[in-house]
Amino acid sequence: MNSGGWFVLLSVAVVLLLFSLIRRRGGPAKYPEVVQFILYDVKLNQVLVETFKQRPKPKTFETTNWAMNKAKIGFLSETLKKLLKDTFATIDGFNGEIKAAKKAKSESFRNLDLTGLKEMLDECRKELEDWMMTNVGQKELPPKYPSLSSFFFGER
C-alpha cells in the first residue's frame, strides 16, 4: 500500500473513533425519555379504561412501551417500580381475558371490573408526572427537532 492508501485508512479510523466517542449511548440523560414512554402507555390505557364499556368490540390495553423499557426503570423509587410492575401485570391479565373472549366470540369481556385498574393507572400517572416535574421541570418533554449534527453524531 502506498502512502495515500495509508492516509485514507488512518483518516477513516480516526473518524470512526471520534464518532464512537462523541455519540452518547444513554444513561441519566435518557431517564426522562424512559419515563415519558411509560407515561404514554399509562395515559393511553386510562382512555381505554374510560371508553371500555362503550366499545362494540374489545380493544386490548397498550403495553408496548412498558415491554421495551421495563428493564430500564432501575432509577425510579422502589414503590414506583412496584406500582408499575403490578399495574402492567394486571393489564396483562385483562389482556389475556379480552383475547380469550375474542377467540371464543363471547361478550364476557363486558363483565370485567376495571375500577381497580383505573385507580392503579391514576396513581401511576400521578407518580410519573411528579417524577418528571421534579427531575425535568415539566410534565412532558419538549419536542425534539432534527439537526445536522444529530444526523451525523446522534442525539445529545
Entry keywords:
156 residues, mainly alpha, 0% strand, elongated
Largest beta-sheet details: none
Radius of gyration: 22 Å
What's the overall average pLDDT, rounded? 83
The computed structural class is: mainly alpha
> How much beta, percentage-wise?
under 5%
Shape: elongated
Succession of helices and strands? HHHHHH
Describe the structure.
It is a single chain. The protein has 156 residues and is mainly alpha-helical. It has one domain (26-143). Helices cover 64% and strands 0% of the residues. The two termini are 38 Å apart. The model has no long low-confidence stretch (mean pLDDT 83).
List the topology elements.
Layout: H1 3-22, H2 31-50, H3 64-69, H4 78-104, H5 115-135, H6 148-153
Helix pairs in contact: 2-5, 4-5
Summarize the structure.
The chain is 64% helix and 0% strand. By secondary structure, the chain is an all-alpha fold. The chain has one domain.
